[in-house]
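name: query_chain
kind: protein
chains: 1
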Amino acid sequence: MAGIFHRLFKAGESEAHALVDKLEDPIKMSEQAVRDLRKDLQESLKSLAEVKSLAIRMTKDADDAKRLADDYERKAMLLLQKGQSGDVEASEAERLAMEALNRKEEAAARALQGGQQAQAQQQMVATLQSNVNQLKSKVASYENDLVMLKARARTANATRKINQRLSNVDSKGTVALLERMKEKVSEEEALAEAYGDMAASGGSIDSEIDKALGSGSGKAEDSLAQLKLKMGIS
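structure:
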């Protein structure tokens, strides 16, 4: 039983370490932050569109109510004019004009209330638009940071690999190898020079005779002249 709990604890511990490592990875954290901000931005844009749509409808309803109130007032004035001209009985004209004015007041009240609601909605639109602009700025900033962070991570990784390779190079062994190579080359050069001297000094007897005769060519010429003189040869 203790072994089972021990294995479970080790498994949980490894998962916890993996989670911590993942959370501590700045690139992964930045990528997640950008994804979250993009999601927030999309939701904010959707909310902004809905609020703008509602504000537009409220403004339109308020304008329609105001036009209706103006229309009822115009009709009430026409009814009174017809009552005065006799086209419509005066009492009937006044009754209908009163009804028109009542409806005009109702429409005017709706126009006022709708205008106030539309104005409040427009203020909410302005607030949401400001929030959306801030989110857009943050998303752009995080995206730029993410690009720079990835570039720095790649550079740091490449630098680390190069430094690791350099640290693994045996500088002492390399220097010793070069010194042995220098000694070997010096030995080969000295040996080549020795063979050259031996080749120069290892000539034949004929070459030695020719060399000796060549060095004494002056005396041989004198002897030849004396010999010709003795023999009477000019």
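note: The CA atoms of residues 118 and 198 lie 116 Å apart.
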